[in-house]
Design goal:
The structure is a single chain. This protein is α/β, with parallel strands linked by helices and about 325 residues long. The chain has two domains: about 130 residues, Response regulator (Rossmann fold), CATH 3.40.50; about 130 residues, Rossmann fold. About 45% of the residues lie in helices and about 20% in strands. It is elongated. The N and C termini lie far apart (about 55 Å).
Length: about 325
């Protein structure tokens, strides 16, 4: 039986609900033209830790904003497989899409289809000089990456090193820019840092082992190996042990696969430049939410990099989230 006191409080509460403006309450999740909570499709290569990081950040943002998230994984790591998955996503008619335009021009047909259907897209990771194809881009400054890597190596080595670059393949645009930026900056500021060789791993451990061994035998002066893909870095530590070069060749990786972080903690790998996939994922979802809610958001964001070394390998993750514009925090790069 309801007491008179409780009944009175209930009536007062209902009156307050009636007179308070809607803005008093937490903002509801954005809806599409049908009045349904929006669904975001994200295309992610979940076989790699960095993409898992981004997908987890997308999920965190989706939970924070009450929107639906569908993560789709391409069947392979080729641009063809990503096109296939992207087209599948578009044909499911989501309200927005997040994907990495890592081969600019290759996905134009799919992008045009999304535009025709009125599906907004956020580009992540690889800059594409936003020309209207995307509502926003959250990417890594690849020129800045090469400069930072060159300066860090210069400070560590007294400005002298013979460098081997390990890349996925010669035609990956962002990796090519990173490498060339490193070379150009070193030439101007660190003339005794030389890039003496470049090898291609195809993100395959057997291939990486073979090409690394071949490079070290052909160029015994190599004292630094820099990876621009994250899938095979830990192979480098095994090769150095086998060739008795541990401590003589410095390995610098990229991103934070668990085996790489473990190798850094052990001292087998010097460090890794960890691209901030957390910021990419979370703010991509937030950009879409703001787009549907008619709120301002940045159209170009540099996600940034955090250097993982033995000193911070056990507690670097909070640093990845420090710069993320979480719900309730302002975008630091939002134009006035």
């Amino acid at each position: 039986m309801i007491s008179s006191g409780f009944r009175k409080a209930l009536v007062i509460g209902m009156v307050l609900l009636a007179i308070l403006p809607a803005a008093t309450f937490a903002q509801s999740a954005p809806v599409n033209a049908k009045g349904q909570v929006i669904t975001i499709a994200a295309v992610e290569f979940l076989g790699f830790q960095c993409y898992k990081n981004r997908a987890e950040a997308e999920k965190r943002a989706a939970d924070d904003y009450g929107v639906k998230l569908v993560v789709l994984q391409p069947p392979g790591v080729t641009p063809e497989s990503q096109v296939e998955t992207l087209l599948n996503a578009i044909n499911q008619n989501p309200d927005a899409i997040i994907f990495e335009n890592d081969w600019p021009g290759y996905y134009d047909e799919a992008i045009m289809l999304a535009h025709k259907k009125g599906i907004p897209i956020v580009d992540v990771h690889v800059p594409n000089e936003n020309d209207g194809h995307f509502i926003s881009e959250l990417t890594i400054d690849n020129l800045g990456y090469g400069i930072s890597a060159s300066d860090k190596l210069g400070a560590l080595t007294g400005g002298k090193a013979n460098v081997l670059f390990m890349m996925n393949s010669p035609d990956i645009p962002n990796q090519a820019v990173m490498r060339q930026s490193f070379i150009d900056h070193a030439k101007d500021k660190w003339p005794n840092i030389k890039v003496v060789d470049t090898r291609f791993t195809k993100v395959d451990s057997v291939t990486a082992t073979q090409v690394l061994e071949a490079a070290l035998k052909a160029n015994p002066k190599i004292d630094t190996a820099i990876w621009l893909e994250s899938g095979t870095v830990s192979v480098g530590a095994d090769v150095l042990k086998e060739m008795k070069l541990t401590g003589k060749v410095k390995i610098i990786g990229i991103d934070d696969p668990p085996d790489l972080v473990a190798a850094i903690k052990k001292g087998d790998v010097f460090g890794s430049f960890n691209q901030n996939f957390q910021k990419q994922g979370y703010e991509a979802v937030r950009n879409i939410v703001d787009f549907f809610n008619g709120k301002p958001f940045p159209h170009l964001t540099d996600a940034g990099i955090v250097l993982i070394t033995k000193d911070n390998a056990g507690n670097y993750l909070p640093d990845m989230w420090t710069t993320v514009a979480l719900k309730g925090k302002p975008y630091p790069n939002l134009s006035k």
